[in-house]
C-alpha cells in the first residue's frame, strides 16, 4: 500500500514536514546536524573540484528547509558554504583560493540557487498550511452540518422526487420507530396513513411543477409498532444548477401531544357545553364601561334570551317587576365590592315567567374599580316549581300531622284514663278476695293444713296481681309527660341509693366503687328511677356472691359518653338477651330471685325518652354490665 493511499502514513508525513509542529531548537539543531553529515559524507567520498563540491550540502539545505522552514534552511546554506570552502577547496583546511574568480562565481550561483530552493520550499509550506487550515475549516463545517442534521430537535429527511427516503436523522428514526437502514428501503408513502397520502402528493406535485417552492401540512405517520404519530411537515424543494428538481428537504415536528391536548380540549368543551345544556346554565360577561352584556355560550336556546348580546337596561326590563328592586339594589353594591352578587329572580320572556339563579364575579383594575363582570345564569324554573309543590305538600302534611297528633293524644289520654280505671276497678276485687281469704283464715283457725295452704295461695296470687297492676301503672307513668332536663349528679344519686340498700340489708357485705363527678343533663325524677332499677338489679343479683362488688363509671362509646352499672353477680346468657328489656320477661326463675320483670323494661323506657340507648353485656356466673347514653340535650 502506498503512502498516498494510507491516510495514517500521509498524516505522519505531513506532521514530519510541517516545521510548525516542532520546537525551534530541534529544527535548527537538525539543520546543523544534516549539514555536517552532508559535508562529512562528501569529504569521505572524495574531494570535489569546481561545482561538484556543493551537491551534498545543497541536499542538506533542502532537507533542512523542508523540516525546519526558512530559518533552518538559511542556517544550513551558510554553514554548508563555510564548510565547503574550508574543507573542499585546496589548499584544504584554509580559506585560501587559487582561483578566486572561479570560487566567487561558484559560491554566488550556489547561494542564488539555494535561496531559490529555500524560498520555494518556504512558499510551498506556507501554501500547504493554508490548504490544511482551509481543509480543517471545511471538515469542521461538514461536521457541524452533520451534527445539525443528526441532532436536530426535529426530524429531518431528504426525499427524492418519487418519495423515496434518501436519508433521515436519528430524531426522525425515533419518531417513526424505523432504523436508518430500514428507511432507506421505504418511501414516505409507506409510513404515511393512507388518508393523508393524497394531500401530501398534491402539494409535492405543485412544488415539482413550480407552483410553490415549499409547503407545510399536518399529517399522520404510522409508527413501526402500529400507533399513530401526528406530525407537522415543512417541505422545501432543492433544484440542480440546471433548474431541474433534485430532492426535497422535509423538517418533521412531532405534534402528537398537541393533537392529544386539542382533542382533550374539544372533548372538554363538548362535555362542558352538554353539561351547561343539561343544567340549563349560560355563561356571560358584562362590559361595565359600555353597559353591554354578551353571552359566552349560545344560551338563548335554553335560557330563552332573545339574543346573545343586550344592554344592562334591557336585562332589567326582562326582570319581573316584583324582583327588579332587589336586583337594582344588589348590583351597585357588588360592583363596588361591598357585596357578593348572588341572587335568584324571575324574568318575563314572551309572556312566560322563568326563575333564574345568577352569580357573578368582577375583574378590577389596579385601583380596585370593576371593569368587567363574569357570571353564570341557571334556569331554576323547574326547581322552583318543585319547591312550591313541596311547600304546599309540607303544609298539607304538617296539617295532617297536627290532626293525627291530636287524634293520637286524645286516644292516648283516653287509653290512660282507661288504664287507670281498669287498674282501679281491678284493685277493688283483689282487695275483696284478699280480705275474705284473710277473714276465712282468722275466723276458722281449725281449718286443716290443706285448706290453710289454699287460702295462702289465694292471698299470694291476689298480692302478685296487685304488684303487676302497680308495675303496669308505673311503666305507663314513665312513658308519658315531657322530659325536663336539668343538671343531675349521677354519682350522688348512686351513692345515696347504695347507702339506702346497705341500711335495708345490713347483713350484706357489698363493696362498691362510684366514679366521682358523673354529671348529666336529664330529667331528675326519671334518672332517679333509672338508677334505682339498675342498682336494685345489681344488688339483687349479687346476693349469692362473696364478696359482692358493684361499680358505677363512665366510658367513651361511639364518639360519645356511656354511663355504666357493673356487678360481679349471677350474670346471664347473651343468647337470651332479647327478652331482657321486655315487660314481665325474666331470665331467672322466681325461686332464684324475686321480682316482676318490670325494672329493666322501665329503665329502657326512661333511656329511650332521653333519646339514648340501653344495652347489656354479661356472662353466666361472671356478672353483668348495663351501659346507657342519654342523647344530646335539645
TrEMBL record:
It is an enzyme of class 2 (transferase). One of its GO terms (biological process) is osmosensory signaling via phosphorelay pathway. It is a multi-pass membrane protein. The keyword Transferase applies. Its EC number is 2.7.13.3. Residues 215-267, 339-392 form the PAC domain. CDD domains: HisKA, PAS. One of its GO terms (molecular function) is phosphorelay response regulator activity. This is histidine kinase. It comes from Hydrogenophaga pseudoflava.
Amino acid at each position: 500500500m502506498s503512502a498516498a493511499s494510507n491516510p495514517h502514513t500521509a498524516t505522519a508525513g505531513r506532521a514530519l514536514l510541517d516545521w510548525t509542529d516542532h520546537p525551534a531548537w530541534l529544527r535548527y539543531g537538525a539543520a546543523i546536524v544534516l549539514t555536517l553529515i552532508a559535508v562529512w559524507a562528501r569529504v569521505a567520498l572524495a574531494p570535489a573540484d569546481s561545482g561538484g563540491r556543493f551537491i551534498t550540502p545543497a541536499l542538506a539545505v533542502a532537507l533542512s528547509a523542508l523540516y525546519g522552514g526558512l530559518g533552518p534552511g538559511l542556517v544550513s546554506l551558510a554553514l554548508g558554504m563555510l564548510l565547503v570552502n574550508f574543507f573542499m577547496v585546496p589548499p584544504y583546511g584554509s580559506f585560501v583560493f587559487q582561483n578566486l574568480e572561479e570560487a566567487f562565481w561558484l559560491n554566488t550561483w550556489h547561494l542564488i540557487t539555494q535561496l531559490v530552493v529555500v524560498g520555494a520550499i518556504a512558499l510551498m509550506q506556507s501554501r500547504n498550511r493554508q490548504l490544511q487550515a482551509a481543509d480543517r475549516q471545511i471538515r469542521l463545517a461538514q461536521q457541524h452540518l452533520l451534527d445539525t442534521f443528526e441532532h436536530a430537535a426535529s426530524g429531518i429527511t431528504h426525499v427524492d422526487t418519487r418519495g423515496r427516503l434518501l436519508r433521515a436523522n436519528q430524531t426522525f428514526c425515533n419518531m417513526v420507530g424505523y432504523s436508518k437502514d430500514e428507511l432507506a428501503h421505504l418511501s414516505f408513502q409507506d409510513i404515511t396513513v393512507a388518508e393523508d397520502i393524497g394531500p401530501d402528493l398534491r402539494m409535492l406535485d405543485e412544488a415539482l411543477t413550480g407552483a410553490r417552492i415549499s409547503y407545510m401540512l399536518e399529517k399522520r405517520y404510522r409508527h413501526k409498532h402500529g400507533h399513530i404519530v401526528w406530525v407537522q411537515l415543512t417541505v422545501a424543494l432543492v433544484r440542480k444548477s440546471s433548474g431541474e428538481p433534485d430532492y426535497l428537504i422535509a423538517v418533521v415536528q412531532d405534534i402528537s401531544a398537541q393533537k392529544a391536548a386539542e382533542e382533550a380540549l374539544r372533548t372538554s368543551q363538548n362535555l362542558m357545553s352538554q353539561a351547561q345544556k343539561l343544567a340549563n346554565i349560560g355563561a356571560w360577561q358584562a362590559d361595565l364601561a359600555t353597559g353591554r352584556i354578551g353571552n359566552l355560550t349560545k344560551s338563548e336556546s335554553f335560557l330563552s334570551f332573545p339574543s346573545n348580546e343586550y344592554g344592562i337596561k334591557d336585562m332589567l326590563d326582562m326582570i319581573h317587576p316584583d324582583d327588579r328592586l332587589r336586583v337594582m339594589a344588589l348590583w351597585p353594591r357588588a360592583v363596588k365590592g361591598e357585596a357578593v352578587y348572588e341572587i335568584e329572580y324571575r324574568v318575563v320572556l314572551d309572556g312566560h315567567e322563568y326563575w333564574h339563579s345568577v352569580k357573578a364575579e368582577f375583574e378590577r383594575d389596579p385601583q380596585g374599580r370593576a371593569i368587567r363582570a363574569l357570571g353564570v345564569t341557571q334556569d331554576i324554573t323547574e326547581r322552583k316549581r318543585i319547591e312550591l309543590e313541596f311547600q304546599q305538600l309540607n303544609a298539607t302534611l304538617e296539617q295532617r300531622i297536627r290532626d293525627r297528633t291530636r287524634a293520637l293524644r286524645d286516644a292516648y289520654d283516653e287509653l290512660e284514663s282507661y288504664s287507670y280505671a281498669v287498674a282501679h276497678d281491678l284493685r277493688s276485687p283483689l282487695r275483696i278476695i284478699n280480705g275474705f281469704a284473710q277473714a276465712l283464715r282468722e275466723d276458722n283457725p281449725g281449718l286443716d293444713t290443706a285448706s290453710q295452704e289454699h287460702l295462702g295461695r289465694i292471698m299470694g296470687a291476689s298480692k302478685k296481681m296487685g304488684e303487676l297492676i302497680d308495675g303496669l301503672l308505673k311503666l305507663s307513668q314513665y312513658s308519658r309527660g315531657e322530659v325536663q332536663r336539668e343538671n343531675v349528679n349521677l354519682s350522688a344519686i348512686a351513692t345515696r341509693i347504695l347507702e339506702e340498700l346497705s341500711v335495708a340489708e345490713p347483713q350484706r357485705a357489698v363493696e362498691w366503687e362510684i366514679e366521682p363527678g358523673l354529671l348529666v343533663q336529664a330529667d331528675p325524677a326519671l334518672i332517679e328511677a333509672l338508677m334505682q332499677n339498675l342498682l336494685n338489679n345489681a344488688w339483687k343479683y349479687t346476693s349469692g356472691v362473696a364478696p359482692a362488688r358493684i361499680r358505677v363509671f363512665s366510658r367513651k362509646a361511639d364518639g360519645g359518653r356511656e354511663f355504666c352499672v357493673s356487678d360481679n353477680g349471677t350474670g346471664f346468657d347473651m343468647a337470651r338477651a332479647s327478652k331482657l328489656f321486655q315487660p314481665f320477661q325474666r331470665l331467672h326463675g322466681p325461686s332464684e330471685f324475686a321480682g316482676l320483670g318490670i325494672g329493666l323494661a322501665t329503665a329502657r323506657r326512661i333511656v329511650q325518652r332521653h333519646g339514648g340507648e340501653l344495652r347489656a353485656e354479661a356472662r353466666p356466673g361472671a356478672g353483668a354490665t348495663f351501659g346507657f347514653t342519654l342523647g344530646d340535650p335539645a
